[in-house]
Each structure stands twice: as structure tokens, then as C-alpha cells.
Design goal:
This protein is of the alpha/beta class and 316 residues long. It has helices at 14-26, 56-66, 79-84, 86-106, 141-160, 186-195, 215-227, 248-258, 271-276, 285-291, 299-314, and strands spanning 5-9, 31-36, 47-50, 70-73, 111-113, 116-117, 164-165, 167-169, 171-173, 200-202, 210-214, 239-240, 244-246, 264-266. The protein is globular. The chain binds 2-amino-3-ketobutyric acid.
Length: 316
């Protein structure tokens, strides 16, 4: 089987859409197949299949049709949206993962990727420089699905030899697509408002630190993890991954340096409690040691790339 027939499940989201472009660029001779519950980019010429990740027979058909050998399973309901419909979020996130893991074993998938998140930690996890191995007691449905999902990934690796790899993403910041339903989304909305000359009301309080990362770093980390030799992958649940950590106030100050008239205020809502249960910063030294992870985008680079990118035609 050609190791480079790749399926992205959840290809139309914030991460999937940019991962597609990165995979096509990195592996020009690979076949990269996109799948999601809707086609968000009908103008793009590419292999696209409608797929509900919990539909096992449909997934079987796609894997067979394209002789898929690698899967990136990104489809998930994020933290804030998950709290509005907990059983539905659990079903999509958990049953979706199990359906894909089963299909991966059945079709002898060469390598699989599934993202975990800082949401897998919880209120009793130490919040500063949260280590790789630590108490994890998430209290959101999204976080619970990530924590248990990590254990399922390790289980499929140990029991069936499935080479499934995972990263605990921080909040991912990007300008090409809008995220949907996360607690870290404020750090994207703020740029749209700032550029439109509007005041931004943040749904988190000013002093809420959260780990964040520019999307190019997140995509590069994902591809580097997937390319790392098997013997270098020592963590089979999911790797801590970090770049930046800031509060809404600090981000606002950084934006003000570029847009001096920018104004923001704060009206914390139910998402504050979610953010308060997550780490403020992450110790990702194991990823750095095991497979050479190193982030590139700091605060200044992040602010500039977001403002320039949005100005180039992506402003909502
Ligand atoms: C969310 O806010 O739900 C996500 C995440 C941190 O996993 N961005």
C-alpha cells in the first residue's frame, strides 16, 4: 500500500483546512483526501468526501476507495460548544475516535494522528508549567473526551500495534478560517475587532493566562511528530506542546502597539470557568527532547502575522 495516501477527517475546520495545504506542499506525490460533514471549499479542486466520523461503513468505503494508509482524525466538538450539548459532544468526540481507531486497525493503517488538548487537564492539575505526567481531572465534556481518548490511543498502540500519535494542542491562533466553539477563540476574534476599529469585549477576564500557538507552529509540530522515527515516540498518550502563554490583557497591550487606538473591556461568561480549569502554561520539554520540537512564533511575530494576514483579505 502506498504510505502516502492520506485521509483528513474534519478537513474543513481551522486546523484541517491548513493541514491539507501543508500536506499537499510537503508531499507533492501523495494523494490527500479531505472529508467532513460539509464541503466548505467547493471551489477547490481536490478529493473530497462527505463523512460523518461516527459512520463506520462510510469510513470503510472511503479508506478502500482511496487505498488510504495514513489518517489525520481532527473532527471534534470544542470545549465551549460541547458544554451546550454534552451528550452529543461526547458521542461525536468519543464514538468518532473509536470508529476511526477500529477502522485503522481493520485496514492496517500505517500511521494515524489524533489531537488532544490542554483541555485534558483539570482544576486539580498544577497550572504553571504543567508537566507531561500529572493529575488530569478535566471537568468539561470536551476535556473528558480528550483525556479518555488519549488512553484509547495508547491502548490501540499497545494492544494492536497501531502507530497512533498525538499532541496536546494549546489554543491555536490563525486568520484563514474562524475556529468554532472553543474557549481560546477570543484570541482570534480580538484581531478581527481591532482591525475593524471596533472595541473588543472579551469573554474571559483580563488576568486569565492560557497557552497559545500560531497555526504554522501547530501544523509543523504535527508533521514533525508524524515523521519522527518510531523509536523516538516515547509518549503514547499525547505530548504536551507549547509556544506562548498570555492573558487577554497582555494580548490587548501587544495589539495596541500596532493599533494605538484599540480598546477592549471584559465581560466574563461561562467560558471563564472552563479557562480557569486549564493550565496557564505548559512544560513541553519531553516533545523537545524526544523528537526535537521547537516553536518559532513568539508574541510579536504572532501579532504581526495575524494583522498582516487578516488585512490581506481574510477579515470577517
Ligand atoms: C478550545 O478552546 O476548546 C480549543 C482547545 C484549547 O482545545 N481551542
Amino acid at each position: 500500500m502506498n504510505p502516502m495516501n492520506i485521509l483528513i477527517i474534519g478537513s474543513e475546520g481551522q486546523l484541517g483546512s491548513e493541514l491539507y495545504d501543508a500536506l499537499v506542499l510537503k508531499y507533492p506525490s501523495a494523494k490527500v483526501v479531505c472529508s467532513d460533514i460539509r464541503n466548505a471549499f467547493p471551489e477547490k479542486e481536490r478529493n473530497f468526501e462527505i463523512l460523518d466520523a461516527t459512520d463506520a461503513p462510510a469510513l470503510d468505503r472511503i479508506i478502500e476507495k482511496y487505498q488510504i494508509s495514513q489518517i489525520y482524525h481532527l473532527a471534534a466538538i470544542l470545549s465551549a460548544r460541547g458544554e451546550q450539548n454534552p451528550l452529543w459532544a461526547w458521542d461525536i468526540n468519543m464514538r468518532g475516535l473509536l470508529v476511526v481507531l477500529e477502522a485503522a486497525v481493520k485496514h492496517k493503517i500505517h500511521r494515524m494522528y489524533w489531537p488532544s488538548s490542554i483541555a485534558a487537564f483539570g482544576p486539580n492539575t498544577p497550572r504553571v508549567q504543567t508537566p507531561q505526567q500529572v493529575v488530569m481531572d478535566p471537568n468539561t465534556v470536551y476535556g473528558m473526551s480528550k483525556q479518555v481518548g488519549e488512553l484509547w490511543c495508547r491502548y490501540y498502540f499497545e494492544k494492536y500495534g497501531l502507530d497512533v500519535r498525538s499532541l496536546r494542542y494549546p489554543g491555536i491562533i490563525s486568520y484563514k478560517t474562524l475556529p468554532g466553539g472553543g474557549t481560546t477563540d477570543y484570541a482570534i476574534d480580538i484581531f478581527h475587532k481591532a482591525l475593524k476599529g471596533e472595541k473588543f469585549t472579551c469573554f474571559l477576564g483580563p488576568e486569565t493566562p492560557l497557552p497559545m500557538m500560531y497555526i504554522d507552529d501547530a501544523i509543523r509540530a504535527t508533521l514533525e511528530l508524524m515523521e519522527a522515527p518510531t523509536e523516538q515516540i516515547k509518549e503514547r498518550t499525547s505530548y504536551n506542546l507549547a509556544a506562548l502563554s498570555f492573558t487577554p490583557e497582555q494580548l490587548g497591550e501587544a495589539i495596541k502597539k500596532a493599533i494605538p487606538g484599540f480598546e477592549m473591556d471584559y465581560a466574563p461568561d461561562f467560558r471563564q470557568k472552563i479557562a480557569d480549569s486549564w493550565p496557564g502554561s505548559i512544560d513541553d520539554s519531553e516533545a523537545r527532547k524526544d523528537w526535537g520540537w521547537n516553536h518559532q512564533f513568539g508574541m510579536d511575530e504572532l501579532v504581526h502575522v495575524m494583522l498582516d494576514g487578516l488585512k490581506s483579505g481574510y477579515l470577517s
